[in-house]
Amino acid sequence: xxxxxxxxxxxxxxxxxxxxxxxxxxxxxxxxxxxxxxxxxxxxxxxxxxxxxxxxxxxxxxxxxxxxxxxxxxxxxxxxxxxxxxxxxxxxxxxxxxxxxxxxxxxxxxxxxxxxxxxxxxxxxxxxxxxxxxxxxxxxxxxxxxxxxxxxxxxxxxxxxxxxxxxxxxxxxxxxxxxxxxxxxxxxxxxxxxxxxxxxxxxxxxxxxxxxxxxxxxxxxxxxxxxxxxxxxxxxxxxxxxxxxxxx
Length: 248
Hints:
CATH topology of the largest domain: Rossmann fold
Distance between the termini: 34 Å
Shape: globular
Order of helices and strands: HEHEHEHHEHHHHEEHHE
Structural class: alpha/beta
Radius of gyration: 19 Å
CATH superfamily of the largest domain: HUPs
Number of strands: 7
């Protein structure tokens, strides 16, 4: 199935929208196909501000209406206690809320940006997608991440070269409770590293007060040469800082 065929069969769709490469192209493709499309963003503590800003900017650039669902996930102990299947509970909470909003607006189809490269065995959230009845047109159309980036570039979407970004909760080791303090600390620390010009990195929590910086291989040499700057950027948030020599 081609993605255009999906939109021909489903001319009115809601999109679970994060502002990443995949969901941005999905939203664009729906708009280009002439669909009545509406974007729904989950506004949670797990999403950094820049991601939400990117999502709003992209939606505005292609003239798609957006609804932000304010969600407090800290009340759900299946999420806050950070078990191995946290992603399933988180995805379930988010999708059920987005479905509620979409249905209230008259939408009967909710799509997400899962692509053909996404491995179901590595993503507990896939189970939530199935249970919630969310469809994944990019995956069903066989579109890979590389193809989506190419199509996004052709479409002039600024997200075409945006690094993949997992939620802030993924920086906290499984079994370590997720707190507002941890999430904000990680977000601030990553903002500092981003401002130094690094990209596609992670600042992972090493409880109780340490952090591990993970960078792509091409940036490890620069990081070593800027050791003092990196320490200055992270020391306000962490007592101990380590550099992971295994590339991301």
